[in-house]
From TrEMBL:
Transmembrane segments: 60-83, 95-117, 200-221, 241-264
Similarity-based family: Belongs to the binding-protein-dependent transport system permease family. CysTW subfamily.
Localization terms from the record: Cell membrane
Keyword Mitochondrion: no
Keyword Phosphoprotein: no
Species name: Enhydrobacter aerosaccus
Alphabetical keyword list: Cell membrane, Membrane, Transmembrane, Transmembrane helix, Transport
GO cellular component assignments: plasma membrane
Domain of life, source organism: Bacteria
Protein name as catalogued: Putative spermidine/putrescine transport system permease protein
Topology class, membrane: Multi-pass membrane protein
Amino acid sequence: MSRDRRLSWMMIAPALLLVTVLFFAPLVRVLMISVTEPTPGLGNYALLFTSASIQRTLLTTLRICVFTTAITLVLAYAVAYVLTHARPAAQRLMLLGVLLPLWMSVLVRAFAWVTLLRREGLLNKGLMSLGLIDHPLALMWNETGVTIGMVHYMLPLGILPLWSAMRGIDGRVLAAARGLGAGRVQTFGRVFLPLSLPGVIGAGLLVFIFSLGFFITPAILGGGKTIMVAEYIDTQIQESLRWGVGTMIATTLIATIFLLMFVLGRIVDLRTLFGAK
């Protein structure tokens, strides 16, 4: 090993040690608890196939994550497309609007949606005053409210990777398509959209991964009636004291996220996706 290589390893050794102690060691501990509590074995993992409550929670989580990802991608793609073709001054203002929610506490945003979506909230009052509805809409304590809150949180995480991917599309390709007689719709559908698909896939997986472990927004907007997997884990550990079940679900969730991250890395260059290349 060369001197420069040894020096490089010495420089990153403290960071590697920190990651090992603070990240991988707790993960190993969680895995060990999942196969030792209350008795050694894979009995906790068998509950994934036999427990109705766990299966219902997993299906609810999957359904909400799929809807959240789909809605976020549609909205994020439109914003990223406009952002890509906007003038520099407009781009700066739009980016400020995209980044501003990231600087706000997720708790503050969740309670803001409570103010808007509850039965006596601003949205229902506005719709009733306009005569569009006779009775308040049920927009909270259900999957609708949870999805709305999660889409709002996920939009910047969808817009930024898509914008990064769209910026990488060579404008000369689009100009060549138009020069060959393609209209704006044809140019978008047959040139721009296919070239942006890696960004769509990457942003979709990224949003889905973040959605899987959401806790605060579903807990507040779901009101205990719509329970996702993170809240279920908290209930098993904090209230039911079923450490084996809670850590089993946590381990399953972590393994799923690692698998999705591996798939994401195989589909797109992560450095390109986040604008580092």
